[in-house]
Specification:
Elements lengths: L1 H7 L33 E4 L6 E6 L5 H5 L6 H10 L6 E17 L7 E16 L2 H9 L9 E2 L5 E16 L4 E18 L3 E8 L5 E14 L11 H12 L1 E13 L4 E15 L4 E11 L15 H13 L4 E4 L3 E4 L3 E12 L14 E12 L6 E13 L2 E10 L5 E10 L2 E8 L12 E12 L6
Antiparallel strand pairs: 1-3, 1-21, 2-3, 2-21, 3-4, 4-6, 5-8, 6-7, 7-9, 7-10, 8-9, 9-12, 10-11, 11-14, 11-15, 12-13, 15-16, 16-17, 17-18, 18-19, 19-20, 20-21
Length: 465
């Protein structure tokens, strides 16, 4: 069990999409900043293929640290892995699949200064913090830790599967400033939330037995959308599909962003994403353990044959006494969860003028082949926010081929190099993005790896012909 916890906490999915952010040739960049200007009349995403995203990373010991064939004792590796991790290390998953999307520009024939985008995507978000105290307890036991408190507030878990319906609007206010807003309706398919646990466990010398095990705890797990999947007449697959289309626990949220052109070459932009909540009212099942409990432990002497109690009866009695120690309060109380808020901001410099055969005054930054800049990302999490800083370089090789390279420093790695490409074949757009190429030689020892790809159909502006 301890080995499973340690290995699991090595994998971390993050919602930072540093390669996609600001990559305006890809329509999905609007999901990261609703004020980003797209240079097309309209687009639609190929259903279920327009945006596929997954990312994995690590903040503590790697799988390689535990299973490497290096002649080091396995128990020693587990011990080192636990020592190298803290209660702020966590296992987290974020995955997104765009079901459909589209967008179109509005405005006069000579300047399209407004853009509307819309769509539906499915998202999975999971985070589990590494309970270091409990890992030490599992590794060492309590015999050598008498009077040492083990904190139970390190047990923190949040998981959500949901669909997101969204409509965005951006408006170019003047030659320098564009603002954007995106409204969202969340439909939660299932939720598990246990992030406000408190308390401790301690073993002390006992009076009736060698040791007393004292629990002073306040533990709560709230769930929605799971209890009502168990009915005799419920098809879980169909039920989940129904919840995608407003059939789950509903919530509201919004994204907001801006793009400010300081001058012809310098641009500053930013966005705030997923400011919103979900109200959980369906399929509620909550469990709480709260109070002070004392377990006097196991009688070290087995009963003699004359007592009439078998060894099996003896152990069954111990199990029943321990299970009966805690009073679990189960309720169906409604609750509210808040979405993890994401912040993006970047400063960009365009350079390397291109010589045009004819004037194209509407092309966004088309007179420059290159862009370079810095991007800051931050996201709220139950323990503390996570942050990342990215330096990037963008190059337009041809009208139909663009590339972007990134260097990211975050909690997982100080040398994460990523690459992205967007290509057009007629109206069909294809993009692929991945990062942490330096560590792909040994995937089991990598700090983070991500992949994004998708297909869109983009109808360019007529004045580009």
């Amino acid at each position: 069990m301890l080995c499973f916890i340690v290995v699991s906490c090595n994998f971390l999915f993050s919602q930072n999409k540093q390669i996609l952010y600001g990559f305006s040739d890809v329509p999905q960049s609007l999901l990261l900043n609703p004020a980003k200007q797209l240079d097309n009349d309209w687009y639609f995403g190929i259903p279920l293929l327009s945006h596929i995203h997954a990312k994995v990373g690590i903040t503590g010991s790697t799988v390689y640290d535990i299973f490497a064939d290096d002649n080091v004792n396995f128990n020693t590796k587990i011990r080192n892995a636990v020592d190298n991790m803290g209660s702020n290390d966590f296992y987290s998953v974020n995955q997104q699949l765009e079901i459909f999307s589209g967008g179109f520009s509005l405005g006069s024939s000579y300047e399209k200064d407004k853009y509307i985008s819309f769509g539906l995507y499915q998202e999975l978000d999971f985070i589990f913090y590494f309970p270091k105290d409990l890992a030490i307890l599992a590794l060492e036991g309590n015999q050598n830790n008498i009077n040492r408190p083990f904190r139970t507030n390190q047990v923190r878990l949040a998981a959500e599967a949901l669909s997101v319906w969204h409509v965005g609007y951006s408006k170019k206010l003047n030659d320098k400033l564009t603002v954007g807003l995106r409204g969202k309706i969340y439909s939660s398919l299932a939720n598990v939330n246990s992030t406000k646990n408190k308390g401790r466990f301690v073993t002390v010398p006992g009076q009736s037995n060698f040791y007393d095990h004292i629990f002073d705890v306040d533990l709560e797990a709230r769930t929605s959308g799971i209890a009502n999947l168990d009915g005799d007449n419920v098809d879980p697959g169909r039920e989940m599909i129904r919840r995608v289309f407003f059939g789950g626990n509903l919530g509201l949220g919004f994204d907001v962003g801006f793009t400010h052109k300081i001058n012809k070459q310098w641009t500053f932009d930013g966005s705030l994403l997923d400011v919103g909540f979900i109200r959980h009212t369906k399929g509620i099942e909550n469990h709480e353990i709260k109070g002070n409990y004392t377990f006097e432990g196991i009688n070290p002497l087995f009963p003699n044959s004359g007592s009439g109690q078998s060894a099996e009866d003896y152990w069954n009695e111990i199990e029943e006494n321990f299970e009966g120690l805690f009073e679990v309060d189960s309720t169906t109380t409604k609750y509210t969860t808040w979405r993890p808020v994401k912040l993006n901001t970047s400063l960009n410099y365009a350079f390397g003028k291109e010589t045009f055969e004819e004037c194209n005054c509407t092309q966004d930054e088309g007179q420059y082949l290159n862009r370079a800049g810095l991007q800051l990302f931050a996201m709220t999490r139950p323990n503390k926010p996570i942050m990342a800083l990215t330096a990037y370089y963008y190059r337009r090789l041809f009208d139909n081929l663009q590339v972007k390279a990134t260097y990211t420093v975050d909690s997982f790695s100080a040398y994460n190099i990523g690459l992205g490409m967007s290509a057009n074949l007629g109206g069909l757009n294809f993009y692929v993005m991945a990062d942490n190429f330096l560590q792909l030689e040994n995937i089991y020892d990598t700090q983070s790896v991500s992949l994004q790809l998708g297909f869109n159909y983009i109808f360019k502006k007529k004045d580009e012909d």
